[in-house]
Design a protein that fits this description.
The protein is α+β, with helices and mostly antiparallel strands and 154 residues long. Helices cover 58% and strands 16% of the residues. Strands 3-2-1-4 form a 4-stranded mixed beta sheet. A hairpin with a 7-residue loop joins strand 2 and strand 3. The protein is elongated. It comes from Kribbella sindirgiensis.
Length: 154
């Protein structure tokens, strides 16, 4: 999906937003929560997207207020975004390794926990989430096979 740049400035008591990738796409609001909602609405309209896509839009916000504290907030927000990506990657890798340690090496969840730097309860949760993904696929396949057998012409 496309990422839209949103440039935000402040005029009086209002926040102003401009989406340079979509000509003429500007809006304003009295608070940032409302501004997010309004920006999503105008992007959907300007890009001719279904209204249901508004919540799924990827917006990259930049705040140009010329203030040192806002610049620090911008840097902190960018760092949080990077950490969120890293956290998803780390979660996936931990789940995979927890499964391999317990399944392939035969370690108990109590032994795998300290090796991974997490609790044994968390190892159990990760293993369960990994298993549920596989079991959901196998259940779907079983249902499709059963349905095919029932509807098979004689």
């Amino acid at each position: 999906m496309t990422t839209y740049e949103v440039h935000v400035s402040r005029e009086g008591d209002h926040w102003l937003a401009d989406v340079p990738d979509l000509e003429g796409t500007q809006t304003y609001a009295s608070n940032l929560t409302a501004l997010d909602r309004y920006v999503r609405e105008i992007v959907v309209l300007a890009a001719d997207l279904p209204a249901s896509k508004a919540a799924d839009l990827t917006l990259h916000w930049s705040y140009d207020l010329g203030d040192q504290l806002v610049q620090q907030a911008n840097a902190l927000r960018a760092e949080r975004e990077e950490l969120a990506v890293k956290e998803k990657q780390l979660e996936r890798e931990t789940r995979e390794l927890a499964t391999k340690l317990t399944r392939d090496l035969g370690l108990s969840v109590r032994d795998a926990g300290p090796l991974l730097g997490i609790s044994h309860q968390r190892v159990s949760q990760l293993r369960s989430s990994a298993k549920s993904g596989r079991s959901a696929r196998s259940k779907t396949a079983s249902r499709e096979t059963a349905t095919a057998r029932r509807h098979k012409p004689d």
